[in-house]
Amino acid sequence: MSYPICLLIVALFCSTVHTLPAIDGELAKGLNRATIHPRCGSVSTFYGQTPQDWVKNDLDGWLNNWINANQAQISANPAGFAGAFGQWAQGNPDWSCRDDGSPSNCDFDPCDNAVLNDKGTEVMEAYYVSEAVNRLHSYFVGFSQAFEVSSIFAALSKDDWAVTFYKDKDVKSDIILKSVLAGLGIVFGIAAAFAGLGGAVAAAAGGTASALFNGGVGIATPLIDQHRDDTFQKSADLGGILGNIVVSAMKAFVGANNVLMGGGNFENTGDIRTYLSGGFFVNYGGVDKVTIIDSMNGFLIGQAINQLWRTQKIFIMGGGACSDNQGIGSGPQEAMVCRDNRAWYLYYWKEHEGKALTSHKWGWVEAPPGMDQLGQGEYSSVTVADVINSSLDAYAVAGYDYTTETAASRARSAIEDGWRNPGAQGPSWEGTFTIPVCDVGAAVGANYFNREYILQPYGHESRPNWCGPVCGGSEDQTKAFIEAAHMTGFESPTHLCWKH
Predict the structure, then answer these.
(1) What is the pTM of this model?
(2) At what angle do helices 123-146 and 253-262 cross, to 10 degrees?
(3) How far is it, in rounded angstroms, from Cα 135 to Cα 273?
(4) Distance between CA atoms of 281 and 258, rounded to whole angstroms?
(5) Which of 39, 48, 206, 488 is deepest in the core (most CB within 10 A)?
(6) For 150-162, what is each residue's pLDDT tens digit?
(7) By CB neighbour count within 10 A (0-12 exposed, 13-18 middle, 19+ buried), where does 465 fall?
(8) From CA 43, how far away is CA 127, in angstroms rounded?
(9) What confidence tens digit (pLDDT) does each residue in 241-268 have?
(10) How far apart are CA 484 and CA 227, in angstroms?
(11) What is the CB neighbour count within 10 angstroms for residue 174?
(12) Is there a contact between 229 and 181 (Cβ–Cβ < 8 Å)?
């Protein structure tokens, strides 16, 4: 995927967060924390703040008490919470932290601030909350700025990318668009949490990460609803619709920032106390805009390709040993993933169009349409391995019924409970792809007719034979797979089988 890198790099670490000057290592050894920056006043005692410091000193409880005790001041200040807190902690009633084009309305320099240093026993609390609010503001600004760059819109709006991955003879336009739109909210939620988490997992900051995820979903939902009645033409419209929603959704983060800074509850995810809980933002380093764009591109393009492919005879087969076909045949090595010493292959059963007097009338297996474009150029963020691994994980969780509800539940659980960071994993995250999977491992050593042809490489003469319960050794599972792969009533894989 190509981007205007120069513009992104310039903006990469832009933030209103002020950093302190570095201290010579040898000099620092002889200084305790309280005397590192004596000219800055007593606040310097608390420099180098961490989420652990926030939790240890119960800043959540302190902030809750401060807001409850200062409701009159919050209501009276035109900037709401941020203005009232800025006046109390820094002597700055204009500290609005709104995203309104001002480059300085959330600036915070703790050094030598007379009001801040005069807070006595509450210097630490005033400093920690000021830092956290400033850095939360930088998160929202950075996230929205990342999507002012047109690279995502341009990538999704290509006139030919949809048709590249779609060659079914039956146009299922309404199904494709509705399916793609259904998953978009989850993608936005994952991106919002990823912008805050970076490459880490949520761990103790699960509440804040969850709020970011839910906020992203909340922002996307009304925008998606505006397009639910749109039509999808194979040649173009899908990319244009996605591009418009993405740009609009990311700009909506301006509103999220302003609601929270004013003291409001954003999309029922909570007010600023929720977003600052656990000290998640007290030492936040800023949005890595290039990485966020790469991840978002991968998810969006991956989900769109998945829905295009899911309407066609595209499937994954495997489960045998990676280095030995074990008497069940071998699949295409160019579309193989070896996982836990088991080989998995990506297939497309191409139907023959027109009449044929030869075996070609049964079609053949080849690479799915557009597979050769993955991992390079505009589709460099998605690979064949992503397709297979994501589908295998989705299948392990929910079989052939990995729904939008399942996807939302799993992503939310991963982020809240800290067992995975979907944004960092990218399009290989479970459910980005849900290509039907058939585990043929049970066929090894089984007495199935023509079992040596269950797996075949790509080719005009390649027609796999599935005689028997090839998926999991189960007739029901095999039937469910065939239905999921849109092959019900399609006789090509069984035309050589002995009929009772």
Answers:
(1) 0.82
(2) 160
(3) 14
(4) 17
(5) 206
(6) 455 555 655 566 6
(7) buried
(8) 7
(9) 776 777 777 677 778 899 999 999 998 8
(10) 27
(11) 13
(12) no
